[in-house]
Amino acid sequence: MRTTAVAILFAALIAHGPVLTQAPAPLAFDVASVKRNLELTASSAGVQIRPEQLESIWFPVQALISQAYGVPGGRILGMPDWARTERYDVRARTSKPSSRQEVLSMLQTLLAERFAIKVHRETREMDIYALVLIKPGSPGRGLHRVVIDCEANRLAEGSGPGLFPSDSRPPCGNMVSNVRVRLGGGPAVVRNRFAAVTMERLASGLGNTGRPVIDRTGLMGTFDVEMEYVSEGAPVTAPTTKEPLTGLTLREALKEYLGLELRSERGPIEYLVIDSIARPTPD
At what angle do helices 100-115 and 61-69 cross, to 10 degrees? Predict the structure, then answer.
């Protein structure tokens, strides 16, 4: 009788006790290649994220980390100089179609495996800019609202046409940039067009203002965005011209094209802190 009672008690403890389950494995690419690119310039550079692959050409590691964790480069701390300056080609594939966020999670895994990266997040109180509408309810001519299925990259029925051909739109959130720089260096004229970008993403991309920028526009949904302004810096691959380059400053372009302005505030900002990182292991 005592043996039976003990057996019943043991069964009850198993039935009602904590169930230990193994954490799911992190998402990872099936095949990945990471190679240092020693070219001084590149005819094309950037990253493309598709349902079954990621391809990054002549990209610094800092930019890959920014993509993977959704943090602007200016909010990444502890980055070694080589991670800002050295360029890499990364090509990776999945065995089945995946969402953009799943591909970015796979990129995080790749960075951990190949660059031994470890990170944590911190929130700090600091001076910021709030991106706001100058006239509430009155966005500028450079904001084109679009309703789009980002996974299929197709405009929904009833959406505005946006800025791009319907059959060859860049993926949601991507930017197409055209730059002209004066021969001999100096300011550059930058024409940026964003595809189906949220105001939050647009604000976070304004990293050359000297402060973090936070969306306070109140505009929901996605927009194709276009504006042109004069920047003090230019990519080394930018075409040159002998003609004088004039135009609006970034702040003026925000007002003229988008009906937006930057207002000084103080608030909490999240940073990504690099705890450790190393040059990649060879393929």
Answer: 140
Please tell me what DSSP assigns to residue 275: E
CA–CA dist 208, 198 (Å, integer): 19
Identify the bridge partners of residue 214 per DSSP, sorted by sequence position. Answer: 130
Sign of CA dihedral 73, 207, 174, 187: negative
C-alpha closest to that of 142 among 45, 257, 229 = 257
* Rounded Cα–Cα distance for residues 271 and 87 (Å): 23
Strand 118-133 vs strand 213-215: parallel, antiparallel, or unpaired?
Answer: parallel
Phi, psi of 203 (to 5 degrees): -60, -45
CA torsion through residues 32, 34, 39, 44, sign = positive
Q: For 268, phi and psi rounded to 5 degrees?
A: -80, 135
More confident residue, 7 or 165: 165
Task: With cut-offs at 50, 70 and 90, classify the pLDDT of residue 116.
Answer: very high
Chain center to CA of 13:
49
Beta bridge mates, 119 = 274
Q: Which of 8-22, 28-42, 183-197, 214-228 has the lowest mean pLDDT?
A: 8-22
Q: Computed over its alpha carbons, how large is the radius of gyration of the chain?
A: 24
Sign, CA dihedral 146-44-68-74, equals negative
Amino acid symbol at 171: P
Which amino acid, 155?
L
pLDDT band at 100 (very low <50, low <70, confident <90, very high): confident
Three-class DSSP category at 140:
coil
Among the listed residues 126, 131, 135, 125, the one whose alpha carbon sits nearest the alpha carbon of residue 216: 131
